[in-house]
Amino acid sequence: MTKTSTSRGFTLLELLVVVAIIAMASAGVGFAMRDTSQVQLERDAERLAALLESARARSRVSGVPVRWRATPTGFRFEGLAPSAQPDSDLPEQWLDPDTRVADGPATAPALTLLLGPDPIIEPQQVELTSRTQPGKSVRLATDGVRPFAVLAGAP
Fold it and tell me: Which domains does the chain have, with CATH numbers?
């Protein structure tokens, strides 16, 4: 007669699998709880930086000065010739309707940026904020030589 032993408890491998599942679930909850208004502002700022650089390049190619102006409902590029392809024209609204240009002495609603045609422009910046949460803001800027970029740690 042989004696069979039954094991009790969990093996180390089983415990590691449970800990890994808990870690992945915690990370998922952390990402799901991210502040969506700040994410939307950052997305609009990245998009605006790309649009400003596109308009800046088109201004250099055409030799015509291009200006960007903030409007109550979005923004507008002035000086760009209409494109032969309507889909290639630059947009004039924010992705999130809650986004706007920050009000204040340095950045008025009629803020204007000169984007060219010179390859070196004066240093410029724009601060975007949320209409419903004015404490949330993102700033993008250029020193005149480098492209527009979202500034890390901007208020």
Answer: 36-150 (3.55.40)
pLDDT tens-place string over residues 35-75? 677 888 999 999 999 999 999 998 998 899 999 999 888 89
Task: Say if CB 94 and CB 74 are below 8 A apart.
Answer: yes
Per residue in 11-23, pLDDT (tens digit) is: 999 999 999 999 9
**What pTM did the predictor assign?**
0.72
